[in-house]
């Protein structure tokens, strides 16, 4: 194997802070993950321990995220999600404080789920589509991820209500390997315009795999209050989430 001599990582902090609330649950348990950029040839992510992590809301409530037995994972057991409420994230590590602000966004309900056997680019693949009503007279942005056993990572899709404002919209998934009996695990949420723009850049630069290290030139909404030049990577975001599974059925002739 030939190894190219690549520049070393700058050890920049990476904050993975997605707060998702399925309104069928309390949403009290939430997790935030902290790590650092590693060199290209490193096989393991450097987890960040001993950080102070908490979220506040406009009512003055503070929700503390305590480090778990798994390094780099911080958990809150009493988070209180409230639709359209504004939250601020605080992360303190190595004498630096990072902050970000975002609102918890409402997500439309799913109207129905349908499948076809003539989907995909060539019209030869199974395709699963779900439908939802876009709220009228406002700009809306959406993110969907789909997990299925034959894919090593979730497949992500982002969209907006441009040209569809106030109408029924849909999101679909197809793959040449999708067969009857396969079960899709789908998460659908509305997101902010800023996060939509961020994800667009991430997906373009990582071939639709946001789990690789975020490109250092794509910055999220996290600010280093101590040293602005030493910014963190990642994006603090909150959404109501619609989670469901769908098992592909054999088409009836």
What does this structure look like?
It holds the Pfam family DUF4249. This is DUF4249 domain-containing protein. This protein has about 250 residues and is mainly β. It has a domain at about 15-105 and about 215-240: Immunoglobulin-like (Sandwich), CATH 2.60.40. The protein is built from 1 helix and 16 strands. The strands form 2 sheets. It has an 8-stranded mixed beta barrel with strand order 1-2-6-5-4-7-8-16. It has a 3-stranded antiparallel beta sheet with strand order 9-10-13, with no helix packed on it. A hairpin with an 8-residue loop joins strand 1 (about 15-20) and strand 2 (about 30-35). Residues about 1-10 have low confidence and may be disordered.
What are the salient characteristics of this protein?
single chain, 253 residues, mainly beta, Immunoglobulin-like, 3-stranded antiparallel sheet, 1 helix, 16 strands
Order of helices and strands: EEEEEEEEEEEEEEHEE
Terminus-to-terminus distance: 52 Å
Give the name of the CATH architecture of the domain at 13-105 and 213-241.
Sandwich
Mass-distribution shape:
globular
| Uncertain stretches | 1-8
Radius of gyration: 20 Å
Structural class: mainly beta
Number of discrete helical segments: 1
What is the fold-level CATH name, i.e. the topology of the domain at 13-105 and 213-241? Immunoglobulin-like
How would a textbook summarize the main sheet? Answer: 8 strands, mixed, barrel
């Amino acid at each position: 194997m030939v190894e190219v001599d690549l520049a070393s990582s700058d050890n920049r902090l990476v904050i993975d802070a997605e707060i998702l609330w399925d309104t069928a649950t309390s949403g009290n348990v939430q997790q935030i993950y902290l790590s650092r950029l590693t060199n290209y040839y490193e096989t393991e992510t450097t987890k960040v321990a001993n950080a102070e992590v908490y979220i506040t809301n406009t009512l003055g409530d503070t929700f503390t995220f305590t480090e778990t037995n798994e390094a780099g994972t911080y958990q809150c057991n009493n988070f209180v999600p409230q639709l359209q409420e504004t939250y601020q994230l605080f992360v303190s590590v190595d004498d630096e404080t990072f902050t970000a602000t975002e609102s918890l966004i409402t997500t439309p309900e799913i109207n129905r789920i349908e499948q076809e056997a003539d989907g995909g680019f060539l019209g030869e693949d199974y395709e699963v589509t779900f439908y939802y009503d876009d709220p009228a007279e406002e700009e809306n942005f959406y993110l969907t991820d789909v997990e299925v056993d034959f894919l090593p990572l979730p497949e992500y899709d982002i969209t907006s209500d441009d040209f569809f404002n106030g109408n029924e919209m849909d999101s679909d998934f197809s793959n040449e390997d999708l067969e009857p009996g396969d079960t899709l695990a789908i998460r659908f949420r509305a997101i902010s315009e800023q996060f939509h723009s961020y994800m667009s850049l991430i997906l373009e630069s990582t071939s639709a795999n946001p789990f690789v290290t975020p490109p250092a030139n794509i910055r999220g909404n996290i600010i280093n209050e101590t040293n602005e030049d030493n910014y963190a990577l990642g994006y603090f975001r909150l959404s109501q989430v619609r989670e469901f599974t769908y098992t592909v059925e054999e088409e009836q002739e």
